Amino acid sequence: MVPELGHFALILALCVAIVQATVPLAGTVWRVPGWIALARPAASAQMLFLVLAFGALVWSFIANDFSVAYVAQNSNSALPLEYRISAVWGGHEGSLLLWGLILGGWTFAVAMFSRRLPDDMVARVIAVMGLISIGFLLFMLLTSNPFDRLVPPAPDGRDLNPLLQDFGLIVHPPMLYMGYVGFSVAFAFAIAALIEGRLDATWARWSRPWTIVAWVFMTFGIALGSWWAYYELGWGGWWFWDPVENASFMPWLIGTALIHSLAVSEKRNTFKNWTVLLAIFAFSLSLLGTFLVRSGVLTSVHAFASDPARGIFILAFLLLVIGGSLALFAWRAPAVKSTGHFQLVARETAMLSGNVLLVVAMGAVLLGTLYPLILDAFALGKISVGPPYFNAVFVPLMAPLLLILGVGPHMRWKQDDAATLLRRYRFVLLVSVVAGILLPLVAYGTVTPGVGLGVALACWVVGGSVVDLGRRVRTSRGLRGVPRSYWGMTTAHAGLAVVVVGVTLTSAYSTESDVRMAPGESLEMAGYTFHFDSVDQVAGPNYDASFGHFRITAADGSQVARLNPEKRIYRVQTMPMTEAGIDGGLFRDLFIAMGEPLGDGAWAVRIYHKPFIAWLWLGAILMGCGGLLAASDRRYRLAVKSAQAATVGPVATAES
Amino acid sequence: MKARHKRIIFVAIAIVGVAVAAALALSALQSNIAYFFSPTQVLAGEAPKGKVFRLGGMVVEGSMARKPGELTVSFAVTDTAKSVTVSYTGILPDLFGEGQGVVTRGKLGSDGVFYAEEVLAKHDESYMPPEVQDAVDKAQKMGVTKPAASGGNY
After folding, report:
1. What is the pTM of this model?
2. How confident is the model at residue B145, as a pLDDT?
3. In this structure, are B59 and B78 located in the same domain?
4. For the domain that residue B46 is a member of, what is the CATH number?
5. Hey, are the CB atoms on A516 and B71 less than 8 Å from each other?
6. What is the pLDDT of residue B125?
7. From the CA of A163, how many Å to the nearest CA of chain B?
8. What was the ipTM of the complex prediction?
9. Number of structural domains in chain B
10. pLDDT-derived band of residue A299, with 50, 70 and 90 as boundaries?
């Protein structure tokens, strides 16, 4: 009964989405206030039905209703409650429903928090989001209905993939989807502005906080995914350039370019066409990412052939979204005039260069991700593109980006003087180069050009911000005079520098050892001694585990940590899983994972000493917090009043 | 500087930048592509010598052997027609097992043994690597027309 109610709620949500997508839009064309006013209630109704549908699916999981095919495939009666709930988005159909729900949530938020925006603008934005919703709901109802019944019902479920039975997987997908779908708001604002034919600073200012918040979710989502891969996949890597990871990284790169380009559009009334294109591509890549990960195309291009309806729908939907919005862009863009002019040495140039680097980096990732798929689709051979490709392309692109980042944000708009800048930043430049060489040398005794460059660039970014902050404090009214968006920018850039330090040092100075160890044996590594004490057999709720006992001691014999890596066998899928034992710290992680038993009580054991790996995630957290600070700047709350007075400010009021 | 000149400089910088990046990307791609070969293709001499490629198939039942006291393991990989011995030093992925599909990445030694640097783990026990499925299908198709020498060729 409940699944049928959920199915029915989905159908109702589709009906509401159709109304939401058409009536308000028609209202803005024929100027019917009643139709325009329908946008907000439609968004609320849509949200209500999606919550009902999602609730019905959650209920089916909690109640172990194995007559629902999706529940039977992804759950089991022995599965703990929290994983039964997170299993809702453990598969294709449920992920789509979560996507739809989050889209409904963002639409609802736009309807709620845009009271001060012009009604016709809001109507267009909500209508565009309704169009996207129609696409997703149709896809779900026609090809991937999560409420399909299983006849006869299964006696018990196939269980959730053990890899997904983890805290990281409870939070990672919703976070990431909040980001993916959040870019639909920026997309909808851009399309609405194109439809209206009015792309001005006001439009940029309205979409900025939404875009930044979406970007923050995406940042946290990707960081969580990387963290999960690190401790749960069991082998100590944090980024594999796997297509699934790339799928989320590409929209993030474009989203990063977008939030910067939006800033220029708002402040300087320029780059507007570029910004609109970025908004379109950020969302298109989000769609592509969702489908890449969820359609099975990555497992095999031929998965399309086994379920052609899904594949064709996906391709048609992507073509419609990308083609439609680009066509609209081509039609409207010539009318858009950018008024801000700038010289070669100016903040605009720095922003543009950074943008181009980010877009090119995305292009490189896209090439490496899709190339094997395309070759395979045309039967030209089966290839794989390995991490060395991505590193070889990505790292050289990031170095100039960081170089620009040290000084670019602190240049004047329009025109700055290279000699003055050089004088102001030469000290930081010198200190960064020295620090890049000396710090690794002092800490680890060796330094390579790559490590030196990484550390120097990170110091350069932070140093540049410190110099500029100092100048700002002197010229404005002390620390209090510095706007929150400026703090946001500084925090986020410092976060990136922290990530760079983490990536550089972890990659260069990690020590790894795969060894054969029997209980009672020990191994020395990086100044620590790892003692393998014993292995127990332990039974979990839905798995049996070999539970290792390891002790780690420092050089002076004092105990550093006790770790318990596990080898689990999940009963239903009889799937082995490695749970690593990790002793985390600010400057190093100690990592132990048990491989397979080698007979006579010995185990294959992997032991890692990973310096500075925590900095990856600390940096990502800083970046996200920076975004939140920037999005909560008070001028977005005051924006509407001033926006109505002056659509275009040739001279920026607050520099940030 | 006139606005037109400025624009030309910007465009030139952008084009040069993108061209450099594209050249970088394509050369990196050239040297980092790993093609897939089935055991039948390897034994027919189609796989490159001294170059990294991927070899995949089913792990032959009973072929797995460990050197005592070491982490080096060897096993035979088959596409049901032919098979090749693979040697690997390190920890095998959780889902590795005899009778399971596997994809390995490495180089072919002059002794005919494939020395793997990486054995790929997959996230699902019922999952069959598509390359392996394809190789098995092809081998079996050939087997219909001209019965392949079954049994050990490794």
Report:
1. 0.90
2. 41
3. yes
4. 2.40.50.140
5. yes
6. 47
7. 7
8. 0.78
9. 2
10. low
